[in-house]
Amino acid sequence: MPTPRPATGSPPSRPVPPPGAAPSACRTTGDPVAADREPESGRDPGATGARNTDRSQAAARGHRVLRPRGDRGQVAVEFVGMVPLILLLVAAVWECVLIGYAFSLAGNAADEAARAGAVKGGGACAAAAAEHIGSAWNMTSGCTEAGPLYKATVTLEIPVLHPSLSFGRITGEAGAAMEREED
C-alpha cells in the first residue's frame, strides 16, 4: 500500500491517490515513481521552486510554448535612453582632449616664437608663432624684449568640440636668451 507524500507547503499538481488505491505507473517505463515527476526534467511538480507545469507539459506534448511578453523590447528602450548619455560622455572626453591639445600647441608656438625673436627680432617672432598654429585656431601673439631674454606670448581660444567654436582662452608663454652679435 503506497504511503501518501508529506505536505511540502504547496499543493500537488494532481491529487494524491487515496489509501488503498493502486499506484499509477509511468506510461513509458512502468516506474511508479516516475509517474509523479515532470517528463522532461524529472522534478516533482509539487516541490517548491518547480517551473510552471502547464508550460512544461505543453512543451513535452510538442506544443509551441510562447515566452512571456513583459520584457519584450526592453533592450531597445534602454539603448535609446543610454545613447544621449554616451554621446555626452564622448563629447566631454573630446573637449578635454581639445583643451589639452590647445595647451600644448600654445606652449610650443610660444617656444618657437621666442627662439625666432631672440635671433631675428620681432617680425620673425610673430611669423614663427603663426607658422606653428593651424589656420583654424584663433590666435593672438605678442613678443617683447625683457633684458637679456626675448619673451613670446601666444593666446589661443579654447575650442568647444571644434576649433572654430570657443569658450575661453589658453595662454602659452616662453622666453629665450637674446643672441648678441659681437663686433
Question: Can you give keywords for this protein?
Answer:
183 residues; Pantoate--beta-alanine Ligase, Chain: A,domain 2; 3-stranded antiparallel sheet; 3 helices; rod-shaped
Describe this structure in words.
The structure is a single chain. This protein is α+β, with helices and mostly antiparallel strands. The protein has a three-stranded antiparallel sheet. The chain has a domain at 75-177: Pantoate--beta-alanine Ligase, Chain: A,domain 2, CATH 3.30.1300. It has helices at residues 53-60, 74-120, 122-131, and strands spanning 139-146, 149-159, 166-177. A hairpin with a 2-residue loop joins strand 1 and strand 2. It starts with 52 loop residues before the first helix and ends in a 6-residue tail after the last strand. The chain has three helices and three strands, in the order H-H-H-E-E-E. Helix 2 (74-120) runs antiparallel to helix 3 (122-131).
